[in-house]
Design brief:
- By secondary structure, the protein is an alpha+beta fold.
- The protein is built from 5 helices and 7 strands.
- The strands form 2 sheets. A 5-stranded antiparallel β-sheet has the order 1-2-7-3-4, with no helix packed on it. A two-stranded antiparallel ribbon has the order 5-6.
- Strand 3 and strand 4 form a beta hairpin.
- Helix 2 crosses helix 4 and helix 4 runs antiparallel to helix 5.
- The longest helix has 16 residues.
- The mean pLDDT is 90.
């Protein structure tokens, strides 16, 4: 089983104007440095192109697919806690080309932050091709847009942005202090699949 991002990317969670206000900077002399700090802070909270890191899910709507050799429980348990929709389920039968499972043959069950696709008894799956990618679930994860991202996550992004801006020469990129990490964790813990 493996996960692939189909489209979407990390978006800036803080605007340049918001960052200037937070840093109390007037004028555009530092805009390039501020923009880099915004990008670093946003990437720190978001998952990477392989689905790892950050808070454990995409911040703003991204399209993903998960593939496996069959309709296994592991495949049907979607990997992120913020699933917006299941867009399509596809499979490759032993004979013929790729087929789409009609949406009336499955439901998405949500239990807390867990999203799981459940195939209904009405779906009769033919024998699948002997391939590691015989089944694919395509889904969208994350909030609809940056404006929908909760304020406390944006505040965590501002804290990180300020740190990366103020320490752009002195520290290893992506490293933060334990005090800052504690503050970010407290602001974002309730959004993770399992609270820290």
């Amino acid at each position: 089983m493996w996960l692939e991002r189909q489209s979407g990317a990390t978006l800036d969670l803080v605007s340049l104007d918001e960052a200037r206000d937070h840093l109390r900077i007037i004028g555009g002399d530092h805009d390039a440095d501020i923009q880099q700090a915004i990008a670093a802070a946003s990437a720190f909270l978001d998952v990477d192109e392989d689905g790892f890191g950050g808070l454990g899910f995409p911040m703003v709507a991204q399209h993903w697919s998960v593939k496996a050799s069959g309709f296994t429980p592991k495949l049907l348990r979607l990997p992120f806690p913020r699933i917006s929709s299941v867009d399509e389920m596809r499979y490759l039968p032993m004979v013929g080309g790729v087929q789409v499972v009609p949406s009336e043959h499955y439901v998405v069950r949500r239990a807390g932050r867990l999203s799981q696709v459940a195939l209904l008894p009405s779906f009769e799956c033919p024998p699948l091709a002997d391939r590691p990618d015989a089944v694919e679930v395509r889904f969208t994860a994350g909030w609809a847009d940056v404006a929908s991202v909760p304020t406390d996550i944006k505040q965590a992004a501002k804290l990180l942005m300020a740190h990366f801006f103020e320490n752009r020469q002195a520290e290893i990129e992506g490293a933060i202090t334990s005090e800052l990490q504690l503050g970010v964790d407290r602001l974002t813990a309730r959004y993770r699949r399992f609270a820290v």
